Amino acid sequence: MSCDFIALANQGVQKLLPYQTGKPIDELKRELGLDDIIKLASNENPLGCSPLVIEAIQAELKQVALYPDGNGFNLKQAIQQKFGFELNCITLGNGSNDILELVARAYIAQGESAVYSQHAFAVYPLAVQAVGGVGIEVPAKNFGHDLEAMAAAIQANTKVVFIANPNNPTGTWFERHEFEQFMAQVPAHVLVVLDEAYVEYVTDAGFINGFDYVKQYANLIVSRTFSKAYGLASLRVGYAIASADVTNILNRVRQPFNVNSFALAAATAALQDESFVKQSRELNSAGMAQLEQGLSALGLGFIPSKGNFIAFDTGRPCLPVFQALLQQGVIVRPIANYGLPNYLRVSIGLESENARFLAALAQVLR
Ligand SMILES: *Cc1c(COP(=O)(O)O)cnc(C)c1O
Where in the numbering of this chain does the Aminotransferase class I/classII large domain appear (predicted)? Predict the structure, then answer.
């Protein structure tokens, strides 16, 4: 007798479509036999990481047989020193994806709801669905979050609202006054996850910093990652800042060793190298200008972005364009699954990579 183990899975899980990752370079090598490939598909840092990180990882190699520090004391202390939060307000995650899942698992029960925007990061609906929650997707405004509509969409059974600033894959953002108005409308018992995965790339002096609001709003959780501007995507480390009570709860559902020793050491070192982040931000600004110019020269529209990527309108279904770029050894990201069937998202690379992407795109569209 065989059983239907698909039908036996939890209902939310049965309907899950797994997250689609950027295509790995090795996979394209295997498929097409190309050697010279550039990947501008996952918003990774084209400069790699700080040299301090490499040293810290090397020093950690001797301890490979030992479990990591399950409390991540050194990293939390480094976060405290840099940003001024008590250790009991910090939750470490296996990437900030882990943080998003911890929030869903701790706070959303079967049948309860969470609000997020159209074109928002795909992990929000996945995390909600996996725990049997109900997602409420609010139509975007100019590709970005319509915070007023999001606050109005909150139901009696809504536990969490997920917002990203800047958002991925659109690069859109909201301003301080919009956020403050939004927080004033959100009931005090509804948690707001403010995902700031790209905040280190923002160059505007007055840009909103979620950390400024954590003490004011007990229902606010700010998540950050080491995957983007710090260049540690492979190591999987991120963190959340929230009230002591929310942090207490998130740490109850966290795996005891969710962040490995190399990630802990690397992130601790990365926080010490502000100049690397500055260099990354500057390269990104120059690359963004290069891509905006190049896309405009090709007559293509794009969504203005404050992240390390830009989504542009191919003016036709994006998949054939994506495929043709793969043939040229250029990996970008189709975002049809984000409700943007004609758009591709390209991460900002080195100047030479951006130029190669633009040349390949020109050829593909010819
Ligand atoms: C990349 C990204 C993250 C971070 O992912 P990690 O798990 O930390 O690598 C979180 N939120 C958004 C919107 C992202 O684009």
Answer: 36-358
